[in-house]
């Protein structure tokens, strides 16, 4: 399931049938502390490996329902305008968070949370170097916004499986659009 600005969820109010709360350090509660079962199991392994390496990693935002994404997106529109919102937040029905396959990480202390400087924090550095071993990719990589439609989000991880994530890394492929031969989706149609 690839969701981007050209590939909305169908139905728009899609809800994964197997949402669970992973046994990881949480910076959120409620629906945002949930992932689909497969992603949750992989996240548990990844967070444990990070901790074993002395890196604190928290689940900062997991599943978002259509209703939650509506509130989130409308908040961006209200404060920044529609054009800016479209580069910072997915429209309702277009969010990877709604799939249960994606989540945002934090560092447990709030350093640079959801800001460009998070890329330099230990949790983001560790994830960029190691997430593929657990089936994750940084979904919105540096300087790929013309393809993904979003500026760099070092905190946003997407589960695609160990084989695919490792293959992407070995081949130097940055985006899921490129890996799966999909058209770039820099803006909504």
From TrEMBL:
Keywords noted in UniProt: Carboxypeptidase, Hydrolase, Protease
Q: Does the keyword NADP apply?
A: no
| Lineage: superkingdom | Bacteria
Indicate the segments forming the D-alanyl-D-alanine carboxypeptidase-like core domain, all copies.
Answer: 34-161
UniProt entry tagged with the keyword Protease: yes
Q: Tell me, what is an example of a GO biological process annotation in this record?
A: proteolysis
Q: Name one Pfam family in it.
A: VanY
- From the UniProt record, which GO molecular function terms apply? carboxypeptidase activity
Q: What name has this protein been given in UniProt?
A: Putative D-alanyl-D-alanine carboxypeptidase
Q: Which organism is it from?
A: Arthrobacter globiformis (strain ATCC 8010 / DSM 20124 / JCM 1332 / NBRC 12137 / NCIMB 8907 / NRRL B-2979 / 168)
């Amino acid at each position: 399931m690839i969701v981007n600005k050209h590939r909305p969820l169908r139905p728009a109010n899609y809800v994964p049938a197997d949402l669970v709360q992973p046994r990881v350090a949480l910076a959120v509660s409620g629906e945002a502390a949930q992932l689909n079962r497969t992603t949750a199991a992989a996240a548990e392994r990844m967070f444990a490996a990070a901790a074993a390496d002395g890196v604190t990693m928290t689940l900062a935002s997991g599943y978002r329902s259509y209703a939650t994404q509506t509130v989130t997106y409308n908040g961006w529109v209200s404060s920044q305008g529609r054009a800016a919102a479209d580069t910072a937040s997915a429209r309702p029905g277009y969010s990877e968070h709604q799939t249960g396959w994606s989540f945002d990480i934090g560092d447990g202390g709030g350093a640079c949370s959801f800001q460009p400087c998070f890329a330099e924090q230990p949790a983001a550095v560790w994830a960029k170097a190691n997430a593929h071993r657990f089936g994750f990719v940084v979904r919105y990589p540096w300087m790929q916004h013309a393809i993904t439609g979003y500026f760099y989000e070092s905190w946003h991880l997407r589960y695609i499986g160990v084989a695919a994530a490792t293959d992407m890394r070995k081949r130097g492929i940055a985006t899921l659009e490129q890996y799966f031969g999909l058209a770039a989706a820099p803006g909504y149609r």
